[in-house]
Amino acid sequence: MESDNLCPMCNRFDEDCGHLFLKCKGVKECWRSLNLEEVRLRLVQYQSGKETVKEILSMTAKDQLKAVVLLWKWWYARNKANVGDKKLTSLEVCDAVLYHIMDLEKLHQCRTPCMKVNGRWEQPPADIYKMNSDASFDVSTKTGGWGFLARGSNGEFLEGGYGYILRASSPL
After folding, report:
1. Residues 39-51: pLDDT tens digits?
2. What is the model's pLDDT at position 121?
3. Per its UniProt entry, which superkingdom is the organism in (predicted)?
4. Distance in angstroms (rounded) separating the CA atoms of residues 63 and 171
5. What does 56-96 look like in DSSP terms, one character per residue?
6. What is the pTM of this model?
C-alpha cells in the first residue's frame, strides 16, 4: 500500500497535525488574516493535542471561537483538496470562517427569548421544551416551506431548522 504524506494544501513536507493546522503556508496566511498570529505562535510550541486544546480553552471567548472555527474550516478545506476537489484559497477559508462566526454570533444574540406569540413569548414550565413551527404552501406552484425553533424552559435556543418543499399535492 502506497502512503502519500504530502500536505494536500501546499504539496510540501510530511503532513502531520502541526504542519496542517499551524505551519502550512496557506494556514499561516489564515491565522495572520484573522489577526490570530500571536495565538498561532503560542500553539506551535506545544507537542501534543492535549496541550494545544488546553491553550485554546484558556483564550478569550472571541479568540477561542475564531481559532476553533478556523481549525474546523481548514480541516474541511484540506479534506476537499485531498479527494481532488477544488483547493480553497486562504482568502476563501477566511471568508468562510468570518461567515460562520457571524452566524454563530447572531444565534447567540437570539438566546434570550425572542420568539413572540400573541405579542410575547411565553415561557414553558421547567424541564419542558417549547417548539414553534410554521409552514407555507403556494397552491399555484405546489411548493412550500417550513421552519421550526426549539427552546428550553429559560428560552435558550436548542435547535432550529427550515426547508423548502419542491412538490406537494396539498398544504397537508
Report:
1. 999 999 998 888 9
2. 67
3. Eukaryota
4. 46
5. HHTS-HHHHHHHHHHHHHHHHHHHHHHTTSPPPPHHHHHHH
6. 0.62
